Amino acid sequence: MREIIGYYGKFIIKKKMPKKIKHLGIYLYYTSKTPLNYQKNVNLLKYFMSVGRKEEIGYIPPIFSVTISTACNLRCPTCLYSIKDPDVFMEGGFMEVNDFKSVINKYVPFIETVMLTGGEPLLHPKIDELVKIVKNKGLSVSISTNGILIIKKIDVMKSFDSVNVSIDSYNYETFERFRGGTKKQFNDILDGLSLLRKNNVKFSISFILTEENLDEIYGMIKFGCKTKPYYLNFQNINPHGSKEYTPLTKESKKVNQIFSDIIRKKDYPFDIQLPVVFDTTSKHFKTTKCVQPWYLCCFDNKGNISYCCHLRHSADVENIFKGYNFNSNKIKNFRRLMINHQYPKEDCLYCHERFAGEEYRGYAFFCSKLKKWSL
Question: pTM for this one?
């Protein structure tokens, strides 16, 4: 396990530091970058004082994750939504521009970043207008896309502060198997990645790993060498109760052998994040609290809220277009369960997002500038 788990200016986060000291250091770093932004800074301080401790919050979650499209042009078998509901994208729709604008205008003094997700967000016919709304307010905007429509949407792609292309494959054979796509769609992705490079758009590529496809990581890395992202992000599968996929665990000899082999090499041309590998025998595995119910506000095109980015949106949780105050009974109860380590095991136990910000957050990280692995 790495001793140093984060650098924030001159403040170094170490794993043995008390959580309150870590949070204070991170808060001071971020507020030093925007010392005159009083509302955002106070809001962020309230977040750090509440995360993982209070079921009722008195601030605005600093990150808004907006599902602008509930339609998708792929049917990926490992999709965290499709695993639970194969028909989830059958009646997809798109967020109305005015609804989106009203939410951003209301909360712009407090939020830091707007993440556009789906379904497939690039299917939204007016995505350029949505991005413009966010950028005109001085906010950061990111997107996670399957990459098929990059060519058609290259102009708007130039506006994003962060672009992630989720591929899970490295040739047409694996694309058909892992994503259920066509040869044309795969070629469109390749052309789209090339176009991003030509336009100097920094992009990352992400892959889902399971015990069943772990051998293919070598092909994924070779794919990265050809497509030249700035970052390769490998994520452990969250099977949501499915028996078809096996998460990566420390008990697996295969996992340890392959990752040990990967980290021997130190000349990769991009940063690499190897995934969380679950130590299912440790107390930490079961008791770690996810920050998302405190950190994110997730809502879909109808305004329906979800507890986090891995669970379905529902009007039963609340609706941001109808006066949601971030403290509905449902979400307070979900935070309470997370605080008490009683979260829904089927959905949360093997979710890598539960370890975001923790020293346990990944097997290893490779920095291409330093040519060095942090373990």
Answer: 0.89
| Interval 68-108: pLDDT, tens | 999 999 888 887 777 777 777 777 899 999 999 999 999 99
Task: Using alpha carbons, select from 118, 115, 114, 113 the residue that is nearest to residue 149.
Answer: 118
Contact assessment for residue 56 and residue 332, using Cβ atoms and an 8 Å cutoff: yes
Helices and strands in the chain: count of H runs, count of E runs: 13, 14
DSSP for 52-105 reads TT-SS-SS--SEEEEE-B---S---TT-TTTTT-TTTTTT--B--HHHHHHHHH
Per the structure block, which two tokens stand in for 350? 């093997």
pLDDT digits (tens, 9 = 90+) for 181-209: 999 999 999 999 999 999 999 999 999 99
Half-sphere exposure of 73 (CA within 13 A, CB side): 17
Q: What is the CA radius of gyration of the chain?
A: 20
Contact 110, 43 (CB under 8 A): yes
